[in-house]
Amino acid sequence: xxxxxxxxxxxxxxxxxxxxxxxxxxxxxxxxxxxxxxxxxxxxxxxxxxxxxxxxxxxxxxxxxxxxxxxxxxxxxxxxxxxxxxxxxxxxxxxxxxxxxxxxxxxxxxxxxxxxxxxxxxxxxxxxxxxxxxxxxxxxxxxxxxxxxxxxxxxxxxxxxxxxxxxxxxxxxxxxxxxxxxxxxxxxxxxxxxxxxxxxxxxxxxxxxxxxxxxxxxxxxxxxxxxxxxxxxxxxxxxxxxxxxxxxxxxxxxxxxxxxxxxxxxxxxxxxxxxxxxxxxxxxxxxxxxxxxxxxxxxxxxxxxxxxxxxxxxxxxxxxxxxxxxxxxxxxxxxxxxxxxxxxxxxxxxxxxxxxxxxxxxxxxxxxxxxxxxxxxxxxxxxxxxxxxxxxxxxxxxxxxxxxxxxxxxxxxxxxxxxxxxxxxxxxxxxxxxxxxxxxxxxxxxxxxxxxxxxxxxxxxxxxxxxxxxxxxxxxxxxxxxxxxxx
Length: 487
Fold this sequence. Notes:
Layout: E1 12-16, H1 21-32, E2 36-41, H2 44-48, E3 68-72, H3 78-84, E4 90-93, H4 104-121, E5 126-132, H5 142-155, E6 161-166, E7 169-170, H6 175-186, E8 189-192, E9 199-200, E10 203-204, H7 205-214, E11 224-227, E12 234-235, H8 236-246, E13 253-256, H9 262-272, H10 277-287, H11 297-302, H12 312-319, H13 327-349, H14 355-359, H15 371-396, H16 400-429, H17 435-457, H18 459-485
Parallel strand pairs: 1-2, 1-4, 2-3, 4-5, 5-6, 6-11, 7-10, 8-13
Antiparallel strand pairs: 9-12
Helix pairs in contact: 1-7, 4-5, 6-8, 8-12, 9-10, 13-15, 13-16, 15-16, 15-17, 15-18, 16-17, 17-18
């Protein structure tokens, strides 16, 4: 039910988390519905950078219908909450910490209590909160339990509350969707932990925003939780398969293993996707339970979006409309071709059957010649995969610094591959004294630099690429020893 735009005094909304993904979309929806919106934001500049930033009034001005006033403050400071909630008709609480600190749960609950107390003081008409779907009667993960407890704080207050509960939100800026998207695009097959077989009712960002905005118009006596979700329930593994099928990325073969450790899974996700381990861990905590819709009572109050709730396929297509879903494939193909060319040249020049090799007086600790092709093949695959991940993440980002990093990382990789490909020729055929040692040292330093760059992208990538730098360092030592024995 939309606000009547003909009234002289529009309703005033407070949106916390307005510069986040869901909060930003709710702010946009309220503007379109004719609300006057106040945002509680730590940075006015960040609010101005939002898609709705041109609706922000000058500092000190009051927002009218379809306008936004920014209150610079922190939701963890009671004095800021006291000022931000003055004259508010409906408040949307859309902040949630992704911290892994030991006391984050207590902090979340304390912030909710302060918010509820300030809302009570200023006689706010309703609080609308977005929590998470969860099973009943199970021990929940810390992050999912904290969201449940925050909802309970609001429901126990004197302010009527609509505590909406949603699963994975399908939208281009949703962290949970981005994790699903990159896992689906980058993994042709996987053996995942047990939780990938858990059931989930996802919801499109369009639909969750519709329900969040519409909850403002619930009758005053309604104070309860509401499940919201799309029409379909899936297992996480099936969502990965259906994502790939929807975008015609080819079949995905996914198996589950009897492992549930969120810590290990978070490191794996940080290796494969742009989602860091510290953020992935709480997301995984929510996925370790069946998160399915058990009732759809909110629809009986405010209806459904035009055309009904979006299906998984419709939501994916909408979320990826302006997204390059084949960037990873192109990047991996390009990097893979460059690494293959390097490997081809290197394998020809390091053939242990050639006469230059047999003339060498090798040290006793030299590994068997047959091990070199095996090790280098594994290391070349390592180089291709890790650097493709680094470069893909650089290209995914809208940050200008990441675009510059992509160019620098590409140059660093190119230099390393040239040094790698040329090293055998210099080692076996150069007659210039010391050139092989200098070349080997340059290769070792370049390889260490690649590891540093990969670590900066994600520590897990640096750790996976580290054996390459270790091997080139060993090659430097070995080449120096061989040169000294063959003077």
